[in-house]
Amino acid sequence: MLKSRAAVSALLAAMLTVGLTACGFGAPQLPRTYDPSDGVGAEVGELAVRNALLVTTDGTRASLIVSVINQTDAQQALTVQYESTSATATGGRASVNLSVPASSTVTYGFAASDQVVLEGVDTKPGSLFPVYFQSGNAEGSELKVPVLDSALAEYSTLTPSPSPAAVVPSAVPTPISTPTPGTVPEGDNTGNTQPGDSVDSGQ
Predict the structure, then answer these.
(1) Are the beta carbons of 140 and 86 closer than 8 angstroms?
(2) Taking the model in full, what pTM does it have?
(3) Is residue 32 a part of any domain in this protein?
């Protein structure tokens, strides 16, 4: 009886070893990093792009939902590029330039954070849209970003909408604001500045 039990135990052990070996060599290996949500990510220079996805309503405008991690002690620049039908002046590619503060994680397009609105896209929910991320002098990464709509409750409030906080790509640089005229009273030639003065020639 004991010999039979020992034989059965040895047989089970051998089968388990074969099974584990088969799993180790036959099954596809998991990548070192993966995206545990609907979006995609990549390492871009000193930055980590996480959970990038697009939310659209009509397939021509989309809000980029993305988190960017900067673990360095210096501010890092991030450029987002994509094919746009409204960017004919720049060869069909539009760019959005962002700055990520040192030692921080910045999220765009979610809750009260700034929106990055991609204009002139030609896509539809359920597809993948190529978005290129580049930082500093490092080689960038083109990600196939999932395109979603507001059908799911968690994305219903993330659709693109014009707002003062929206970061809308444009080929026209933002002009530098004109300095406010000074408030020096007429006849004040003392050369001393007063609160609110911006120009005082002292003449």
Answers:
(1) no
(2) 0.63
(3) no
